[in-house]
Amino acid sequence: TMYSHSDPTAFNGRVCVGLLDVDICGPSIPKMMSLEGEEIHQSNSGWSPVYVEDNLAVMSIGFMLPDQDDPVIWRGPRKN
């Protein structure tokens, strides 16, 4: 949550940052970062995150839910 309130351009492209939303109370990062409606991309090599800037990638279960109010049932690791 803290990073979502900071300025993602503050790194001036010198650092690559990944933000992973693992909030057990619900995926809130897409809303905090104004990324609602974005989708992750699937390929043979796995999932690709949503890029906010060239140096900022965001991954959240919220991107995979059909509706933001859908419940999430965690069953175990996902390989790809």
Can you put this structure into words, describing what you see?
The chain has 80 residues and is mainly β. It is 5% helix and 25% strand. It is built from one helix and five strands. Strands 1-5-4 form a three-stranded mixed beta sheet, with no helix packed on it. A two-stranded antiparallel ribbon has the order 2-3. The model has no long low-confidence stretch (mean pLDDT 75).
In short:
With 80 residues, the protein is mostly beta strands. It is built from 1 helix and 5 strands; from the N terminus they run βαββββ.
Task: Give the topology, please.
Blueprint: E1 17-21, H1 29-32, E2 41-43, E3 46-48, E4 50-53, E5 56-60
Parallel strand pairs: 1-5
Antiparallel strand pairs: 2-3, 4-5
Percent of residues in helices: under 10%
Helix/strand order, N-terminal first: EHEEEE
Global shape: globular
If you compute it from the alpha carbons, what radius of gyration comes out, rounded to the nearest whole angstrom?
13 Å
Q: Biggest sheet, open or closed, and with what strands and sense?
A: 3 strands, mixed
Alpha-beta content class = mainly beta
Query: In percent terms, what proportion of residues is strand?
Result: 25-35%
Strand order in the largest sheet: 1-5-4
Q: Mean of residue pLDDT?
A: 75
Keywords:
single chain; mainly beta; 3-stranded mixed sheet; 5 strands; globular
